[in-house]
Amino acid sequence: MTAIKSIFHIRYRAILFDAVIFIFNLLMISLLSGMLGRLAAMAGDNIPPAKVAIAAFCCALVFLLPAGAVLKRWMAHQDHPALGSEGLSASARKVIIPAFFISQIFMWFVVDMLMNEAIGDNLPPLPWLYVVILFGELGMTATSAFIFRSYFLSPEHEPHLKWLELPQAAWIGDACIFIGSLGYQALWWYLMDGLPRGYYSIYDFVLVMIEFTILALLFYLPSRIFYLADDPHPKTAWLRMLLANLPILVRMLTGLGA
Question: How far is CA 150 from the centre of its chain?
């Protein structure tokens, strides 16, 4: 029992995260992404329950990671007091925070495509409405980036809700980030599965492998970054992140050669 509890200790949360994503990508990714594809097709056929399901999935992609960061922040700094000063170096923040912002812009682009399937036909053709939606999305992206940045800064005051200082809040935050990451993975496979297949040289294979690896980080890093500071083996963290996405990468590369 003690060994099982130690697996869920915050010190090993990063390794647990990578392991769960690896198992999900190995065993469940095709099932979940297939369900997403069928829902998108049904939403395109104006089936109301499918439209609601796609809209709920998009909202989960957008809101789960920021919610998880807010719920985890105070307990994370209590468990790891150096998180604000040593969790991410200044140079790392200059790279990772813009990368997170770019990943969220890309995610909104994808969400727009899915939401267009769900409710696009029900929106009135008003130009100003689309302008409002665009600026709303940019505002949400900026808000997510601000919350992400604030997570790695030491809180200057106690939270307005005392409950946020309890371990239960952090556990719910972890659950939000885990579920959001699973949604990201399913969406990635759903999008990539429909790409044209075929490469004709080693150069093409290497180029496609690099592109897919970058995409893997684009979909995985926004959720995984919350556990980098707590990783007990930071030197191997990036390798484990790659291994967590290896089942999808192998399927994509071997599928391209079919």
Answer: 18
